[in-house]
Structure to design on (220 residues):
C-alpha cells in the first residue's frame, strides 16, 4: 500500500512517515497543497493524509479538486481546527474521515487501516467494542451499556488511545506522545487526571492500572 502525506509541519510529517513506514506502508511526503494535488492526481496512491492549513492551496480545495477530477482515493483530513462547521466542510468536499490535532498516532494508524479496508464499499464507520463499551472513532461518540457518555475532546483522545489497543498495557510515555502530540513537555502526571475522569464516567473497573507499566482498557 502506498500513502501520500500532505503536511507542511515538517516535524510532524517526518514522524508520521516514519511510523507508517514501520507499519509496512510505502510513504511519500510533500509540504505544499499544489504539490499534493499534483502527486495525488497521479493515481498511484491508496490513501492520502491531507492537512487543511497548507501553503499554495488549502486542504479543502485540494480535496475538492481531486473529487471533481474523478479521483476516489480515500482522504483522511488533518486539522488544528475543532468544530462541527470545519468537519462538515471537510467532509462536504469529499474527505472520507477527519482527525483533529493533536491526535493519537495509534488512532491515526487505525483510521488509515479502516479506510483502506472500506475502500470501494459503503461500510459503516469503525466502532470499537470492548464489553459493554462502544467507541465510535468517526462520530466521536461513546456509549456505555446503552447510555451515551459525554466526554471532553481530551478525554475521548485518551480513551481512543486505550480502545484501539484494548487489553494491552499502554505506558504514560506512549499516551503523552500520541495524545498530547509530539512536542509535549509538561507534567506527565496530567494523564492521571484524565484516567480518573474516565473511570468516573465509565466505571472504575474499565481501566486497570498496571503498576510501573501503564494502563489497560478491559471489558467490564
Amino acid at each position: 500500500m502506498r500513502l501520500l502525506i500532505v503536511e507542511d509541519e515538517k516535524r510532524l510529517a517526518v514522524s508520521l512517515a516514519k511510523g507508517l513506514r514501520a507499519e509496512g506502508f510505502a510513504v511519500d511526503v510533500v509540504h505544499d497543497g499544489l504539490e499534493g494535488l499534483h502527486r495525488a492526481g497521479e493515481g498511484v496512491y491508496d490513501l492520502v493524509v491531507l492537512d487543511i492549513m497548507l501553503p499554495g492551496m488549502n486542504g479543502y480545495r485540494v480535496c475538492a479538486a481531486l473529487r471533481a477530477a474523478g479521483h476516489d482515493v480515500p482522504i483522511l483530513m488533518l486539522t488544528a481546527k475543532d468544530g462541527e462547521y470545519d468537519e462538515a466542510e471537510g467532509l462536504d468536499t469529499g474527505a472520507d474521515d477527519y482527525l483533529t490535532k493533536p491526535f493519537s498516532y495509534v488512532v491515526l494508524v487505525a483510521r488509515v487501516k479502516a479506510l483502506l479496508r472500506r475502500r470501494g464499499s459503503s461500510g459503516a464507520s469503525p466502532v470499537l467494542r470492548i464489553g459493554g463499551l462502544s467507541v465510535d472513532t468517526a462520530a466521536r461518540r461513546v456509549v456505555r451499556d446503552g447510555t451515551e457518555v459525554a466526554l471532553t475532546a481530551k478525554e475521548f483522545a485518551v480513551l481512543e488511545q486505550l480502545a484501539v489497543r484494548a487489553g494491552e498495557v499502554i505506558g504514560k510515555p506512549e499516551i503523552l506522545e500520541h495524545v498530547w502530540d509530539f512536542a509535549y513537555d509538561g507534567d506527565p502526571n496530567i494523564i492521571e487526571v484524565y484516567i480518573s475522569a474516565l473511570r468516573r464516567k465509565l466505571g472504575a473497573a474499565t481501566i486497570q492500572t498496571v503498576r510501573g507499566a501503564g494502563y489497560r482498557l478491559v471489558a467490564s
Observations:
- The radius of gyration is 18 Å.
